[in-house]
């Protein structure tokens, strides 16, 4: 099976606008309020940019 992006909500402090939302080249990440971002797996191309950008490592490509 191809790897996919997982959002580890337990690691995300959920107290700020997610910077990785703006890094995604295809707009696959969305955030409601300060919640952990959600990924649209139909849109995500699994490039790993958001995972590399998240300082908390709450986004994991695995
Ligand atoms: S892995 Fe790439 S395409 Fe997928 S959500 Fe992250 S930045 Fe967007």
Descriptive account of the structure:
- The protein has helices at residues 20-23, 49-53; strands spanning 5-7, 29-30, 38-39, 59-61.
- The relative contact order is 0.36.
- It has 2 helices and 4 strands.
- It is α+β, with helices and mostly antiparallel strands and 62 residues long.
- It has one domain: 2-Layer Sandwich (Alpha-Beta Plaits), CATH 3.30.70.
- It is 15% helix and 16% strand.
- Bound molecules: iron/sulfur cluster (SF4).
- The site of iron/sulfur cluster has 15 residues, from α2.
Number of domains: 1
Uncertain segments: none
Number of helices: 2
Small molecules in complex: iron/sulfur cluster
**Could you give the distance between the termini?**
10 Å
Query: What portion of residues belong to β-strands?
Result: 15-25%
Which terms would index this structure?
62 residues; alpha+beta; Alpha-Beta Plaits; 16% strand; globular; binds iron/sulfur cluster
Would you kindly provide a brief summary of this structure?
This protein is of the alpha+beta class. The protein contains two helices and four strands, in the order E-H-E-E-H-E.
What order do the helices and strands come in, and which of them pair?
Blueprint: E1 5-7, H1 20-23, E2 29-30, E3 38-39, H2 49-53, E4 59-61
Antiparallel strand pairs: 1-4, 2-3
The structure holds iron/sulfur cluster (SF4).
Iron/sulfur cluster binds at residues 5, 23-24, 26, 28-29, 39, 44-50, 61.
């Amino acid at each position: 099976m191809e790897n996919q992006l997982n959002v580890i909500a337990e690691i995300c402090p959920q107290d700020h606008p997610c910077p990785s939302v703006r890094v995604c080249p295809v707009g696959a990440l969305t955030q409601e309020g300060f919640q952990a971002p959600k990924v649209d797996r139909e849109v995500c191309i699994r490039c790993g940019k958001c995972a590399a950008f998240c300082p908390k490592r709450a986004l994991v490509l695995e």
